[in-house]
UniProtKB/TrEMBL annotation:
Keyword DNA-binding assigned: yes
Domain HTH cro/C1-type, residue spans: 7-61
Domain of life (superkingdom): Bacteria
UniProt key word DNA-binding: yes
Classification via PANTHER family: HTH-TYPE TRANSCRIPTIONAL REGULATOR IMMR (PTHR46558:SF13), TRACRIPTIONAL REGULATORY PROTEIN-RELATED-RELATED (PTHR46558)
Keyword vocabulary terms for this entry: DNA-binding
GO molecular function terms noted in the UniProt entry: DNA binding
SUPFAM superfamilies: lambda repressor-like DNA-binding domains
Record protein name field: HTH cro/C1-type domain-containing protein
Length: 205
């Protein structure tokens, strides 16, 4: 089975339109169409995104002779297609200096990187603006956030998924519904207990 066929089958299996998959991969819908028509091939970084999105290895995608057991096309009965519910993208900003294990970057798509002058030490922070289609991304990133008084205390990353805001520390995931002042207040109180000053709680929503 060719890569082009696998992309189409997996996309339909997981209920993505070409437009939705294009958004995840940060390409045009026409690019997805060309991949599925075997006119063009995804770049390496796009293959990794496809692998993470479809929960298959890159080898499964690339090797025609490799078994693709479990990859089945979405079946339909009448007008009702059976679709697997997909997860919305997580989107936010991650300070690279706040993580202990850079392997977490394998689970995100980097849209932009900025250097922020801190006015202290370290002089600059590397800020990564990202999206992630990894369903358990909050749990994964919570395992690698720095929590060490000698390295800046309790670091956190904030991001959102649709209408839910996440504030994630080492082994602690806080979240609230955007627009719900009561839930946000509870999250802010928890952040204060972890030593976060109020001026760092002006999260973009």
């Amino acid at each position: 089975m060719k890569l082009s066929e696998k992309i189409q089958i997996l996309r339909k299996r997981d209920g993505y339109s070409q437009e939705e998959l294009a958004e995840i991969c940060n390409v045009s819908r026409q690019s997805i169409s060309k991949w599925e028509a075997d006119i063009a091939l995804p770049e390496t970084e796009k293959l990794i995104i496809l692998s993470n999105t479809f929960k298959v290895t890159v080898d499964v995608l690339l090797k025609d002779t490799l078994s693709v057991e479990g990859i089945k096309e979405v079946s339909s009965c009448g007008n009702n297609a059976i679709k697997k519910k997909k997860s919305a993208l997580f989107e936010g900003a991650l300070i690279k200096e706040s993580i202990e294990d850079e392997n977490i970057l394998d689970y995100i798509y980097v849209h932009k990187v900025e250097l922020w002058n801190t006015g202290g030490k370290p002089k600059y922070w590397t800020v990564i603006f990202f999206t992630s289609a990894q369903p358990d991304f909050p749990e994964l990133v919570s395992k690698v956030m720095i929590s060490d008084k000698n390295r800046g205390g309790n670091w956190f990353v904030d991001f959102k998924q649709e209408n839910t805001k996440f504030i994630v520390f080492r082994n602690k995931i806080l979240k609230y519904e955007i627009g719900n002042a009561k839930e946000k207040s509870i999250v802010c109180d928890e952040c204060r207990k972890l030593g976060i000053p109020d001026e760092q709680m002006h999260w973009q929503e």
